[in-house]
Amino acid sequence: MKKALLAMTAILALGTTAACGGSKDNGNAAPSASSSASDTPSSSPSASPEASKAAPTKVELKIFLGGLDRFREQFDGYFEKFAEKEKQEKNITVTFNSEYPGSDNAPQILKTRLATGDVPDIFSVHAVNEIPSYYKAGYLADLSDQPLAGKLLDGIKPIVSADGKVVAVPMESLAWGYLYNKTIFKEQGLTPPSTLSEMKTVVQKLKDAKITPFELSYKESWIPQLFLPLTVGGLVNSTHPDFLDKMNKGEGSFAEIQEMFDIIDLVNANGTNRAFEKSNDDGSADFASGKAAMWIQGPWNADAILKVNDKFELGVAPLPISDDAKSTLINTSVSTSLATSPDSKNKEVALDLLNFILDDQASNDLYQSLKFNPVSKNHTFKPYSWVEDASAYVNKGESYQDPTIPQAVKDESGKALQSYFDKKMSKEEVIKDLDKTWKDANANASK
């Protein structure tokens, strides 16, 4: 247990952001049914006699959790526990107007809400991709003086901070590459490959055994987008260390790292059928059912996979992108985090909820039910086996901090790689498109 937690601390000390976490449904934002605490007078010792006798204050919290629809049951249940606590301790009856939009449209919906003054009391942000710009725009309240700030693991706190201020509560901390079916690998006598050539050998052995090598689910653009941080991250931390700097100065091009397409082509040529009909949920169900041996996807899908097949043996390994084993690395990051705005109309209760997210006792059950990793010094639950898989690579120095890539480039890469798979864009056209998108992002950032 102690060893596992130390391993995770090592991971988180390296992490700076990746893929995308959270639910990756493409559903529309729709409020869930409101929930509330009982109106029964509190008998809690912490509630004052005056508070117990007074009529309860009523507060409705507007909550926006983009990309977390697959965890609706866990979050809604946890919010109920918070409502009970708030009623007992402060005589406040809390109800919730909760939305769970999908990852493809959540960022734009949230930006529109914030820009027009329709500010949720609690909302999700991607720690590395979005915290800097949201903080600069004044959308994130300073949480540094809250009890939650002192609980964060040392490797996590900087990732959810801006200007030295804690501005979000981390949910998903990640160590990822691709997922593989351990049962299939064991039965076929395979081990995760270290180079692209070794991956080609694994692919051929699987095909010889009549097993489809890769799950393809490209209905949602954020899934093919996952190739971007994995390939860029591996190459930047091995053979192309200056790529990001050059792109940020407007002096580089994806043509310099076009070997990134080698693994993309290998996966696309050896995957399941009807990729554009398969959503993330469909992909999870197929993968859990053994329809493919590997999936370019992250452990944030563990819950969805195990709900379909609770006996599934999930493995995580770094994705080979060339024949240089030094570029085969685990990506470490913190993705989904929760924040509140300085303009929240219910800021006091919103802060209470954010602190409850890291409650010393209740949060252990929450994070474990979500199959997330420990983020608090007071988290005592044992990390899952796939976390330990990734930790083994990290402990050997085979990992990197997720590359900081403009969000516009990530979004565009998903759409471009969909078109590339569908043969509507050539490799050269994808490169040209991503180069232009990065230059435009540079121009917008300088305004």
From TrEMBL:
A Pfam match: SBP_bac_1
Signal peptide range in chain numbering: 1-18
SUPFAM superfamilies: Periplasmic binding protein-like II
Intracellular or extracellular location(s): Cell envelope
Region of interest (Disordered), ranges: 21-53
Keyword Signal belongs to the record: yes
Family to which the UniProt record says this protein belongs: Belongs to the bacterial solute-binding protein 1 family.
Role of this protein: Part of a binding-protein-dependent transport system for a sugar.
Protein name: Probable sugar-binding periplasmic protein
